[in-house]
Design a protein that fits this description.
The complex is a heterodimer. Chain A has 3 helices and 8 strands; from the N terminus they run αβββαβββββα. Chain A is of the alpha+beta class. Chain B folds into 2 domains: 148 residues; 101 residues, Orthogonal Bundle (Cd81 Antigen, Extracellular Domain, Chain: A). The chains are: A alpha+beta, B mainly alpha. The interface between A and B is large, with 60 and 65 residues.
């Protein structure tokens, strides 16, 4: 309900029109189902709670409950004298040629009250893909054509005579998929471990090469290459010694 | 000279022991790298598609380095026991070459493990999973690899997407171009399956009812094995190289003290 629109005559006029048609606006706003559902709102569907215990008055027991899905403009233009199944309110013409459509029509006994515990009572709007292009099924519950925003309400019709409706609920905005941002994938941060491994191993290899060069140059390959008689030198036991043997040994 | 003879003997013993350890570590390194190359978790196609599969190259190098270490350690033991300068020089030079290769393997494994972020796998999954038109044979091969691997991953680990099933909702993907959103908010492999491989409750799965679809992401199932592989190759190789460094230093000192 908008509070005070331009002039207080406007809501009064609407109320008169409504009662003139015998339409009662039930004090209920449709709501999205529990947020536990992963698929509550997707790119082409959304999930509503079923209108259980809403149209309780026995005079609605023979009515058929329809869901009206409309754009913001359709919400303003919608008049409740609609004939479900007429091409004027067909899903296939939404939203280009029709600013609202009716779908998910069900008799009252489909929504028994109270709700048995443990049951999931939801309505998935947009789940029927088979009839989405089939003009023979104007009340198709087809996938919504765009991200929205959409407005919904429930409408109880006896034949084509509206007897009750709920408040409008919305705006429902559907998800829009975006491109994956190409973030920093290559070189995603050098970890400390990798830096440690690289630097330590490089240092060790350098030390080894340096030691090898020192060992090679310290011996006969370069420089003076002198034999240093050391007390800790290793003798090969099967070959002759460097040092002269005392002549007595021979 | 008895005291220095003992000293020499002890030094020889230490070098031989060092080489024995190198030989055993070489066998262990070969075994570990063969295990990784055999890809028990079937994750190689994912890396192949990212063209970032160098942790497998590091494991391949590890296999050959392990064999080389084993052979060279035997050469080293023989050289130390005979105190043969030529043998030991050959040993030192070949060991340095092996050292360089193993160093390359460790650094490669550590560096490429840093590339494995959730974004990398997310990009691959969105671009290749169930991609309908492929440009050439290579593209087709990679797409099939990614698709089959993801299907198997999601079934076996009861997971969906990289961070969750909402990956399919939030980002555009090749999957979305073939499969409409109303029937397939996420792939059917994300549904909880019964024993025959069919979803337990397809409508519950599409609605996203907890218990009928897998709401957790597969990133842990991917990054766990790959991290273990990368760190296994990198750190074990690092440990071997540190030990080899000490043994080589000792061997070079021993070599310089051998007199003809």
């Amino acid at each position: 309900h908008s509070a005070l629109s331009t002039g207080t005559m406007h809501p009064l006029l609407l109320l008169l029109l409504a009662t003139a048609h015998g339409l009662v606006t039930v004090n209920y706003t449709p709501e999205l189902a529990s947020s536990e559902l992963g698929g509550l709102v997707t790119a082409r569907t959304f999930v509503l709670q079923q209108p259980r215990c809403v149209f309780e008055d026995p005079k609605y027991s023979t009515a058929k409950i329809w869901l009206v899905v409309a754009t913001a403009k359709g919400k303003e233009d919608f008049n409740n004298t609609v004939e479900p199944g007429s091409p004027e309110w067909a899903f296939q013409r939404f939203p280009a040629n029709a600013s609202a459509y009716l779908t998910l029509g069900a008799a009252m006994f489909h929504y028994p009250c109270p709700v048995p515990t443990g049951e999931i009572t939801v309505l998935r709007v947009g789940s029927e893909t088979a009839c989405a292009d089939d003009v023979a099924v104007p009340t198709c519950n087809g996938p919504l054509p765009g991200p929205g925003p959409y407005w919904v309400k429930f409408l109880a019709l006896n034949g084509s005579e509206p007897v009750a409706d709920t408040e409008w609920f919305g705006p429902i905005k559907l998800k829009t998929a975006r491109q994956l941002p190409s973030g920093p994938e290559a070189g995603g941060g050098r970890s400390g471990a990798m830096i440690a491994i690289t630097s330590i191993l490089s240092i060790l290899l350098a030390l080894l090469l340096a030691t090898l060069l020192a060992a090679l140059c310290g011996s006969e390959l370069c420089g003076s290459g002198s034999f240093k008689p050391d007390s800790a030198s290793i003798r090969r036991y099967t070959t002759h010694h460097v040092y002269d043997q005392p002549a007595a040994r021979l | 000279m008895a005291k220095t003879d003992n000293g020499i003997r002890i030094f020889q013993g230490l070098l031989i022991l060092g080489n024995v350890v190198i030989g055993m570590c070489g066998i262990a390194l070969t075994a570990e790298c063969i295990f990784f190359v055999s890809d028990p978790y079937g994750l190689y196609p994912l890396l192949e598609a990212t063209e970032n599969d160098d942790i497998y190259a590091a494991a391949w190098i590890g296999i050959f380095v392990g064999f080389a270490l084993l052979a060279l350690s035997i050469l080293g033991i023989v050289g130390v026991m005979k105190s043969n300068k030529t043998l030991l020089l050959v040993y030192i030079i070949l060991m340095l070459i092996t050292y360089a290769f193993e160093m390359a393997s460790c650094i490669t494994a550590a560096t490429h493990r840093d590339f494995l972020t959730p974004n990398l796998f997310l990009k691959q999954m969105l671009e290749r999973y169930m991609k309908a038109e492929t440009d050439n044979n290579n593209d087709k091969w990679m797409t099939e690899g990614v698709t089959n691997t993801w299907n198997k991953l999601m079934l076996e680990n009861q997971c969906c997407g990289v961070q969750g099933p909402l990956d399919w909702q939030e980002y555009t993907s090749a999957f979305r171009e073939t499969y409409n959103d109303a029937d397939y908010p996420w792939p059917h492999n994300c549904c909880v399956m019964d024993a025959r491989g069919a979803p337990v409750n397809l409508d519950g799965c599409k609605l996203g009812v907890p218990g009928f679809y897998n709401s957790n992401g597969c990133y842990d199932a991917i990054s766990g094995p790959l991290n273990r592989q990368a760190w296994g190759v990198a750190w074990f190789g690092f440990a071997i190289l540190c030990w080899t460094f000490c043994v080589l230093l000792g061997t070079m000192f021993y070599w310089s003290r051998i007199e003809y």
